[in-house]
Write a structure and sequence with these properties.
The protein is an alpha+beta fold. Helix content is 27%, strand content 24%. It is built from eleven helices and 18 strands. The strands form four sheets. Strands 2, 4, 5, 7, 10 and 12 form a six-stranded antiparallel beta sheet that branches.
Length: 420
């Protein structure tokens, strides 16, 4: 198979989106883009590069077959989803993987986003959201039970004047302007219809929330042109409509390529995602690859219970197989971390062993980042080199980007092996 290795983007710039009224396009971020990425001596000192492989890579053959068809222009789109916690919500490591894969296989669009800023939580720096009202927010990590959808977070309002503005940034070599918008939303007789406008409030499309024949939560619409910024507004067509509930938004170019949807919620565990509504909505995007990066918050407690963790993990993978039986799956082992900045967590080794054992039993692939980064106590070394945050749980920007580069390289190497 003819395979073209790509130049991987390392990101050193920070997205600057204007605080003024956005235009229909926003400027590309400035990055340093070397022709070839080579790990520096500090990077190499932190990792076991020989371990940077995908375990059970043979189970990714169905996904790789889809990629091969995409390369040969026999298929229009391929979708991947990466599920996780705060390591994923910030979209630093996942952006490296997304842009690297899209440079190789084509750019189908930015994919799934959520207006995190409007929900008063941290947002990726590659898009901006804003709103004019306060929304009722529900997350999978909240104690109150709520049927959250594809993003693991949702927003509700009864204010008919509410609006959400999205501005999606381009990346070097990747145009993320979109011509198709998919809304994950509550659809019933009581839900507001939707008006999609440009940022100057000229109506582009209107969407009815009443038609539930095709789906009770999803609607897609094509726009007349490509946009980087739009506004979502309620529209009332009958007296019964009194609220809007949004689970997520997907921005698509409506052209061949790859989607890489990142789904992350701060503080999330395997058990937090055990909602039928989450898996139902995720399945509607038909992901051929699902990557799962959870486990940190399952372990980060003095009362860690191995049996409870294993039950939650097994229930999670059981739901994956039930709702998306044809998807290829990669489970990543959680990184090393410290409790209260000073206590090393031996239970992470236990979690790593459970994940790999269950992947072997369930014909899943895995990426053992715990071992790649050095295993027990290695976060201290990453911290001293400036690759982790002060809490020794999260990573610095360059730490996440190194992690993303390693995952991307492991994936591309496995794909290359598939083609031999």
């Amino acid at each position: 198979m003819r395979f073209v290795l790509i130049s991987i983007l390392f990101f050193l710039g920070v997205l600057q989106l204007s605080a003024q009224q956005p235009s229909d396009t926003i400027d590309t971020v400035t990055y340093i883009q070397p022709d070839k990425i080579v790990l520096n001596t500090t990077d190499e000192s932190l990792i076991n590069i020989s371990l940077n492989t995908i375990g059970n890579e043979q189970y990714l053959a169905p996904f790789f077959a889809q990629l091969s068809s995409l390369e040969k222009k026999k298929q229009t789109t391929v979708s991947a989803a990466h599920i996780g916690d705060s390591h994923i919500q910030a979209d630093m490591l996942t952006e490296v993987v997304r842009t690297g894969l899209q440079q190789t296989f084509g750019n189908a669009g930015r994919g799934l986003v959520f207006p995190y800023k409007a929900a008063h939580t941290n947002e990726p720096d590659n898009y901006k959201s804003s709103t004019n009202v306060k929304w009722e927010v529900h997350k999978i990590v909240n104690k109150q039970a709520f049927n959250n959808g594809i993003s693991g977070i949702c927003m509700r309002t009864i204010d008919s004047a509410a609006s959400i503005v999205f501005s999606i940034a381009n990346r070097p070599g990747l145009d993320y302007s979109f011509k198709k918008v998919t809304l994950f939303m509550n659809k019933n007789v009581n839900s507001f219809d939707v008006s999609i406008t440009n940022v100057r409030d000229s109506v582009l499309k209107t969407i009815s929330s009443q038609d539930t024949n095709k789906s009770a939560f999803l609607v897609s619409t094509k726009l007349d042109s490509f946009y980087n910024s739009i506004k979502i507004k309620p529209l009332i067509s009958n007296v019964c409509q009194h609220s809007a509930l949004y689970y997520g938004f997907r921005f698509e170019r409506d052209c061949p390529g790859l989607f890489y949807d990142a789904i992350g919620i701060n503080g999330a565990t395997f058990g937090n995602y055990l909602y039928d509504s989450f898996f139902t909505q995720l399945a509607s995007t038909n992901p051929q690859l699902i990557i799962v990066s959870l486990g940190t918050n399952d372990v980060y407690t003095a009362a860690f219970n191995e049996t409870a963790f294993e039950n939650n993990f097994c229930n999670f993978i059981s739901m994956l197989k039930r709702y998306m039986p044809n998807a290829s799956v990669i489970i990543t082992t959680p990184p090393d971390c410290y409790r209260n900045r000073k206590y090393r967590l031996k239970s992470l080794q236990t979690v790593r062993d459970i994940i790999i054992r269950e992947c072997n039993m369930n014909h899943f692939a895995y990426w053992d980042f715990y071992s790649i980064m050095g295993g027990y106590g290695s976060m201290q070394k990453w911290f001293l080199k400036g690759y982790s945050a002060k809490d020794k749980i999260h990573f610095s920007a360059k730490g996440y980007r190194l992690q993303g580069y390693l995952l991307l390289k492991a994936l591309l190497n496995s794909y290359k092996n598939y083609g031999k």
